[in-house]
Every structure is written in structure tokens, then in C-alpha cells.
Design a protein that fits this description.
Largest sheet: 6 strands, mixed
Helix content: 40-55%
CATH architecture of the largest domain: 2-Layer Sandwich
Structural class: alpha+beta
CATH topology of the largest domain: Alpha-Beta Plaits
Length: 298
């Protein structure tokens, strides 16, 4: 494919790494299948050819973060292709950002991050759908509420639903890239299995990872003892799931389900009567919660 493109575009350059610098006179595209990049002079590309290339590859429009040496070093480090960009005694965490729409501009995102966080965050723009925020461990640590407000601001600015994963602080050493790779996997697994959440952490992602790694034999036990007896009743499953996620708080759970507290109590009692599992006790609620996650897949 690349050889054929070279016959059409004499200026084409094939790159095996993310370009450290982008030229304003060139288009740069990423091929996710081969994880390579190509650059072509804009004067050689017609409007029709540009539309075709954009449909096959992902155009890299970002410039400022890639031109910044620190950002480039961070990208190389996270891909295990370079040394740590900061002192190895320091601890940082990475907040992964994902946008549903493929329409986020780097300059606009950088401006939004600067306005919200000031200089406390290092932005790594990955694509028009994703970015990383690097936060050093200092006297003030951003809270879940801070990030919730940040997401609301981004959605107002970019008209695109956003999700993020708040990583754990980790010393920046040779093990950090593997630590970050695990967090990326957890974020992806969580979004695929629990789309309603907007902010993910290790804590609320763990159950989904647990279900993914659970043996088929254990899943069969939950199906046999819970899902089949209640006939995969999604209403009951959602009720016990939210009851667990909201810390056994009946008022909050009923409010989120838009039902009366008496209706909630009736559903929990019904679940108990059918399965024999007391969801008001932690061990019973844990089993019921795992079953509800499995039930969502059916």
C-alpha cells in the first residue's frame, strides 16, 4: 500500500515512530494497523485524495505538544522507548481522557486545561479523541469532584461526551510504563463493560476486570444460582447493582432509580426471596453484584 502511495505522492515519507515535529506544509497520517506514520506535502494532495487518505488513516493535526521537548520525552518514556523525563524520585499519576467524538483540537484542549488546572498538569495530546494529563504529587491533589467539573467544562466547550481514568500515583522509574499500560487496559475494559460511568478509577474498574478474569466455572455458578432463578430480570439486577455501588444507601439508590423507597425495599426483598441471598449484607451483596455484571452481557 505504501509503495503504491509513493507513486502518487513523490514527497511521501514513511516513519516508524511518532513524529517529533510536524511541518505545517505537510499532511501527517497514522496507520493504526502497522503503527506507522506517513507525511506528504500538501501541494501534492487534491481535495479528493485528502478525503480518501483521511478515511483510511488518522490525520495527526497536533503540533504544540509534539514540538514541546518535554511532551515528546514523556511519550517516548510511556512507550518504553526513552528515559524518564523527570527525577526518578518523583511520583506522578496519569489521567487518561477519551472523547466520544473525533473532533477535539489540541490547541483548544490545551487552552481548556490551562484555564482549569493552570500549570499543575502536563498535557500529552495523543489524537483528536484522546489525551493524557500528567499530575505530579504535591501538597494539593485534584479530587474526583475537580475532574467531574473539568469534564463538564470540556463537554460544554467541545460538544463531545468525555470519559476519564484517574490513575494511581507511582514513582517514575523503569516500571512506570508497565504500570501505565495496565491502567490503559483497565480503562478500555471498563468503558467496554460499563458505559454509564464518566470517571473511572482502579476501585470502580476492579469488578469488571475481575469478571473478565473469572473462570467459566465460577461464572456458571452465578448463572445457575442467581441469573436463572430470577430469569435474568434486568430490573432486579440493576437494583442490586446500584444498591451495592451506592454503599447500601437506600435513599440514594431509590433516587437514582427514580423509584420510591418502598419500591426499592420490595425489589431487594424479592431478590432475597428468590435467590436466598441477603443483599443487605456485604458478602451477599458482593455475590449479587458480580452476577449483575455478568447478567449485563446477556
Amino acid at each position: 500500500m505504501t509503495i503504491n502511495l509513493m507513486t502518487l505522492f513523490p514527497s511521501l515519507h514513511l516513519l516508524s515512530e511518532y513524529p517529533a515535529k510536524l511541518n505545517e506544509d505537510e499532511y501527517t497520517f497514522h496507520n493504526p494497523q502497522t503503527n506507522t506514520w506517513i507525511s506528504i506535502r500538501k501541494t501534492e494532495v487534491s481535495n479528493r485524495e485528502y478525503a480518501l487518505l483521511s478515511s483510511i488513516y488518522t490525520e495527526i493535526k497536533s503540533r504544540s505538544a509534539i514540538n514541546d521537548l518535554t511532551s515528546t520525552k514523556w511519550l517516548h518514556f510511556l512507550e518504553s522507548r526513552g528515559l524518564s523525563p523527570i527525577n526518578e524520585e518523583e511520583s506522578v499519576r496519569i489521567i487518561q481522557l477519551y472523547f466520544k467524538e473525533n473532533n477535539v483540537n489540541e490547541a483548544d484542549l490545551a487552552e481548556a486545561c490551562q484555564a482549569f488546572f493552570g500549570d499543575s498538569m502536563q498535557l500529552l495530546f495523543i489524537s483528536s479523541q484522546s489525551a493524557y494529563l500528567i499530575e505530579k504529587q504535591t501538597t494539593y491533589i485534584c479530587t474526583v469532584e475537580d475532574f467531574s467539573s473539568f469534564i463538564a467544562a470540556l463537554e460544554s466547550d467541545f460538544y463531545s461526551k468525555a470519559k476519564l481514568y484517574i490513575g494511581k500515583f507511582q514513582t517514575v522509574n523503569s516500571q512506570f510504563p508497565q504500570h501505565f499500560s495496565t491502567e490503559k487496559d483497565w480503562f478500555l475494559n471498563s468503558m467496554e463493560n460499563h458505559r454509564a460511568e464518566r470517571i473511572y478509577t482502579m476501585e470502580n474498574s476492579f469488578p469488571f476486570h475481575l469478571i473478565k478474569e473469572m473462570s467459566e466455572e465460577m461464572k456458571h455458578v452465578l448463572v445457575k444460582e442467581i441469573l436463572i432463578p430470577i430469569d435474568y430480570d434486568l430490573e432486579l439486577l440493576q437494583t442490586v447493582q446500584l444498591f451495592f455501588e451506592n454503599g447500601f444507601n437506600a435513599s440514594i439508590t431509590a433516587k437514582k432509580l427514580h423509584i420510591h423507597r418502598n419500591t426499592l425495599q420490595y425489589r431487594l426483598a424479592k431478590f432475597h426471596n428468590i435467590t436466598g441471598i441477603p443483599v443487605r449484607q456485604f458478602d451477599g451483596a458482593l455475590v449479587a453484584y458480580c452476577a449483575s455484571l455478568i447478567g449485563e452481557k446477556y
